Amino acid sequence: MHPDGHVSWFLNGKLNVCENCVDRWAEETPDRIALIWEGDDPSHSKRITYRDLHTQVCKFANMLKRLGVRKHDTVGIYMPMIPETVYAMLACARLGAIHSVVFAGFSSHSLRDRLDDAHCKVVITADQGVRGGKVIPLKSVMDEALKECPLVEKCIVFKHQGHDIDWTEGRDEAMRPYCPLEPMDNEDLLFMLYTSGSTGKPKGIAHSSAGYLLYAAMTHKYVFDYHPGDVHACVADVGWITGHSYVVYGPLCNGATTVLFESVPTYPDPARYWHMIEKHGISQFYTAPTAIRALMVHGDEWVSKHDLSSLRVLGTVGEPINPEAWRWYYEVVGRKRCDIVDTYWQTETGGHLLTPLPGAIRCKPGSATRPFFGVEPVVLDSKTGQPLEGDDVSGVLCIKKPWPGMMRTVYGDHERLLNVYLRPYKGFYHTGDGAVRDKDGYYWITGRVDDTINVSGHRLGSAEIEHALVQHPGCAEAAVVGFPHSVKGAGLFCYVTMNNEYEVNEGTVNELRDIVRKEIGPIATPDHILIVPALPKTRSGKIMRRLLRKIASNDTGSLGDVSTLADQQVVSDLINAAQKLF
Ligand code: ATP
Ligand code: MG
Question: Which terms does the record give in the GO molecular function aspect (predicted)?
Fold first, then answer.
């Protein structure tokens, strides 16, 4: 790993990412479906061919050009999950502009900070979004944000919910149907994306053109065992890296049919995913453990009613998947005939780092198994920083050599790339996650390194205690954090949610405590177990441990940046519940 973070692939090569994802296929297979849009309302869907995609992207690019967008400019995109969002991203790529997609659930403050940090001159939004039947007033959030974004000169508004679309049509007609491709250098930035913010101030992670595209396409092809004719559904939002790599760039570069899912897993009912798989004949389905757990609590009937015979590969991403959820996914959704791919990667890595390959790697539920081609993981001793040789070791997960999809910089702050990722362990890329390499050479992510809790000198991973808690038949989800303890250094505070139908009684807390003692040992005996209705999550579904730590420490005066929180009410409920324990 170069100490200054200089990485390049295909040096001096030229390409245009949009040409690879659109023009190539519009010529070869113009009638193949590029996008299937599944609207929030299950009766709304659209199919867009590669030919249509080409026309729409060209029109969009010409509009951006007319508004002054040029090579290397940055463009902010604050849009719902609709085809126009994909047109906007690809139109930027066509012109060589760097896009910065901000998830359409962020508040005006978060949006302002991101647009400002990215130096966007032009922004693209829609009148409104809709998710789970709830309207999101995107344009008015944007208006609020733009009050404090002096650099933004133009705001393009797409009328998604509005009935009167004359305004857009008028413009579209004036637009030429072809837009030339801007030749780009291999290392020119394709986009930046702010990380989800589970651990602090968001960073604009910037990705390259050639290396990123290669990595997104290759991992999409091999990890999901993609073959022409497959219908690939990654239900992540394009506001996250998973949407960039596995809704847009990976599948389109391979000429696949990719699904854009606008809704949420439980709208209008908990069969939404399964209904959609049956309706579109989906072959690969990719979601997050949090969604799987949320659907599990509703029971198997919602799944078993549907014909899921088109499925071949089921993927998960975002956090470790607990073995119970893994088995449910494998048995109830996959009917024991689909491959499960538990993919471990980050916004910073562009694509999968650790993952099984369907049919080629024997799975162990809860392990992301082995590295993808060319990735060289190492497990370092956290104190000495030395690589731990051999198997059956536990430490900090780092990567030894660059791979094509590796981030190239933190936008506007290259020092931050060095400080956060390259300097902590000299010569390695630091993932920030802990890992075990077991006796068979399989990797198990034990959670973020800063989630380790030091109880009386014993370093306990929050993930292992959580795994123990969810063994309880009633427990749906658990999050464990440390808090200052006068004797032990740190004590264990466990937040637990229970399944809908489970009746909590006086003994439940003791049962939960006993499971942890039995599974891990008396050293891990929880100090507090709080049964709560919900856990605070980021909008991408990750538990915000930073907040849980503050609540556990009874330090709720200043909670820091909570703009990525999905539901603010959850936090006040937790604070109230925790107060009763102090
Ligand atoms: P921030 O960096 O702003 O705190 P974040 O790390 O949650 O946000 P992402 O880049 O979306 O943002 O998430 C990457 C992290 O998610 C990984 O570092 C890891 O902790 C976790 N993760 C992702 N996939 C897996 C997986 N399959 N198994 C275990 N952990 C995973
Ligand atoms: Mg991260």
Answer: acetate-CoA ligase activity; AMP binding; ATP binding
Residue-wise DSSP of 475-534: EEEEEEEEEEETTTEEEEEEEEEE-TT----TTHHHHHHHHHHHHT-GGG--SEEEE-S-
| Ligand (nearest to CA of 342) | 1
**Verdict on whether the full-model pTM lies above 0.90:** no
498 near 476, Cβ under 8 Å? yes
Q: Whose CA is nearest to atom 1 of ligand 1?
A: 197
- Helices within 345-475 (DSSP H only): 414-417, 462-469
Ligand 1 site, residue 368, Cβ cutoff 6 A = yes
Q: What is the greatest pairwise CA distance in the chain?
A: 73
Model pLDDT for residues 283-308, shown as the tens digit of each residue: 999 999 989 998 998 999 999 999 99
> Is ipTM strictly over 0.95?
yes
Q: How many CA atoms lie within 13 A of 544 on its CB side?
A: 27
Query: What tokens were used for 487?
Result: 């004797």
Contacts of 371 (CB under 8 A, 6+ apart): 353, 354, 377, 443
Residue 492 corresponds to which tokens in the numbers above? 């264990």
**What span, in angstroms and rounded, lies between the C-alpha atoms of 522 and 468?**
13
Please confirm whether the linkage preceding 536 is cis (ω < 30° from 0): no
DSSP 22: I
Which ranges of 127-286 does DSSP label H, i.e. alpha helix? 138-146, 166-174, 210-223, 241-243, 250-253, 272-280
Our answer on whether the CB atom of 448 is closer than 6 Å to any ligand 1 atom is yes
